[in-house]
Amino acid sequence: MSSSLYNAHFGFTERPFSLVPDPDFLFWTRAHARAFSVLEYGLVTRAPLTVVTGEVGTGKTTLIQALLRRVDDEVTVGLISNAQGGRGDLLRWVLNALDVAVTPGADYVSLFQQFQGFVLDEYAAGRHVALIVDEAQNLGAETLEELRMLTNINSGKDELLQIILVGQPELRELIRRPELRQFAQRVMAVYHLEPMDIATTRDYIAHRLQHVGGTGKEFTPEATRCIFEESGGIPRVVNKLCDLALVYASSADQDKVGVGTIRELVRDGLILKPLGDPLLLAEPLDSFGKAAE
């Protein structure tokens, strides 16, 4: 049974656990609210460099989408995702993100002059430029240093350009390298987005269910606890487990998802995990998220 059909079974208006980043479904955990505050702080204060990191699937891209919805007309934003390449390639990514046409065959100096001219023109028009780089851990030390050099356009009391980096935990380790000490000094704020705890996971599941017209109680407390154990509190994995569990439950004509359904889909191998990860925790958690005595 397809996941669209379980909507009718449970009375949902749409899939509550889609994997597509959607700000409409954003659940403001304390960690997400703080991460978002750091992102907004970077924009409002025009900080040269702001960094937010988190494990894969913790909702970083969703936060970016939410941030873009709140950007005012005084900010010209360029969003760069999965940028890679050597010297010169970064400027092409940047200009493309800002919808600036690149002259074919232009050398690095020409690209930089083109970028600098754009930033100065925006400033003259009463706007400043913000670059948001998603998956920034892929850039490498040399490219990060190139990004820092771009912020040298800023002069006087006004910041013409600011850069927001969002990436996986490796990004923090990258910034700590000795050769990037100048880069680190220009970072105004850093925040690491942690996975959800069991209480937050329970609230997260209920929030998404209620958002699509559900009661929020379509999963039993035991099933929710098992989902937390399996996912480690990573929202993307929680979504996968919940989506598949709803398919299983509806195909069995069940009104609620029980712990047996979660264990069944795990045994069926529907959730891929890195080698060495246990399918279930050796010690089950009690209702307070602690290991059972």
Automatic annotation (TrEMBL):
- Source organism's superkingdom? Bacteria
The record's listing under Gene3D superfamilies reads: P-loop containing nucleotide triphosphate hydrolases (3.40.50.300)
Source organism lineage? Bacteria, Pseudomonadati, Pseudomonadota, Alphaproteobacteria, Rhodobacterales
Q: Listed GO molecular functions?
A: ATP hydrolysis activity
What is the designated name of this protein? Type II secretion system protein A
One Pfam annotation reads AAA_22
Q: Which organism is it from?
A: Rhodovulum steppense
Annotated ranges, domain AAA+ ATPase: 46-215
PANTHER family named in the record = GENERAL SECRETION PATHWAY PROTEIN A-RELATED, PHOSPHORIBULOKINASE _ URIDINE KINASE FAMILY
Q: Which InterPro entries match?
A: AAA+_ATPase (IPR003593), AAA_22 (IPR049945), ExeA_AAA_ATPase_DNA-bind (IPR052026), P-loop_NTPase (IPR027417)
